[in-house]
Amino acid sequence: MSQTHYFTRDVPMDEIAGNRPSGGNSMAKFYAGQVEDKAKSEALGRPAYRTIDMVQIIIPGDNGTVVKRRVKPSDKTRWPKQWEAYQKMQEYIPEGTLIDNWPRLTRGQIEDLKYNNVFTVEQLAELPDEALGRLGLGARRMREHAKAFIEAAANGAPSAHLVEENERMKNQVSLLSAQVADLIKKIEIYAGKAGEKVEDIDVDAPMMMASEITSQKEKASKTVIEIPDDFEDMTLVQLRALCSKITDEKVLSKAHAIDVINEYRGVE
Question: Going edge to edge, which strands form the sheet with 27-36?
């Protein structure tokens, strides 16, 4: 029974054996393989095999580029933790946030990412543009969310979960609003057919739904986005990630981002 162990590290071009990688952090698994021992086979008069250590190199976002070869001495020093785990017949868990543990993704998206050799949020964030085409519709948005998630964690901002909750509540408010509008329209049609006025119809149901919408909006408005004291020193990429939690407006420059944040903070 072979043991597989993943790592996240770039693979030099000479190890790809002529296959050009698609970019991003590559992975590998160490495993036990077998090759024919020709001398022993001749002596025994039948095929005989011996076990050797093998490594399989995989490119995240590209399930078509796979390199298998015998382990080199440099592999053992380059990836000591993974090699040690393989020697002890233990499973190595890749560093970073596993996509299985990231609530933003659906089960279908997780399976698609794994099929394309993407196993962590960090790998998803670093996928090159050419790899997005293989992942299909919505891949670019997934990558942007992964980048924002990592940047928020790097800045020590506890708002990643709040962003998820905000988006969930916005979607719920939008759904409830659509349901209220549809129900009111049905009431108007019913009133017209009955020859009655709309105000004479029992509208308790839509009123209750409207109340729920108001409650959801109040909850959403209470969600506070924490702004670091040194936000003006942040990079444009970091500022854009922060602004995305405040507004859907596209941030064009650092100055624009600072204005958006100051407006949110109530600073003139």
Answer: 27-36, 49-59, 62-70
Residue 34: exposed, middle, or buried by beta-carbon count in 10 A (0-12, 13-18, 19+)? exposed
Residues 104 and 166 in one domain: no
Domain-located, residue 6: no
The number of C-alpha atoms within 13 Å of 234 and in the hemisphere containing its C-beta is: 25
Report which of 56, 23, 227 is spatially closest to residue 125, judged by C-alpha positions: 23
Provide the residue range defining the domain that includes 196: 160-223
Question: Measuring CA to CA, which residue among 4, 39, 3, 9 is closest to residue 21?
Answer: 9
Question: Does residue 106 fall inside a structural domain?
Answer: yes
Enumerate residues 6+ apart whose C-beta is below 8 A from 212.
176
Cα–Cα distance measured from residue 233 to residue 155, given in angstroms and rounded to the nearest whole number: 12
Do residues 103 and 72 share a domain?
no
- Closest among 8, 220, 219 to 122, alpha carbons compared: 8
Question: Is residue 211 a part of any domain in this protein?
Answer: yes
My answer on whether 216 and 235 are in the same domain is no
pLDDT digits (tens, 9 = 90+) for 100-151: 888 888 888 899 898 888 888 998 998 888 888 888 788 899 999 999 888 8
User: Is 15 strand, coil or helix?
Assistant: helix
Distance of CA 101 to the CA centre of its chain: 10
Encoded tokens for 245: 């939690």
The pTM (predicted TM-score) of the whole model is: 0.45
Q: With left for phi above 0 and alpha for psi between -120 and 50, is residue 195 left, alpha or beta?
A: left
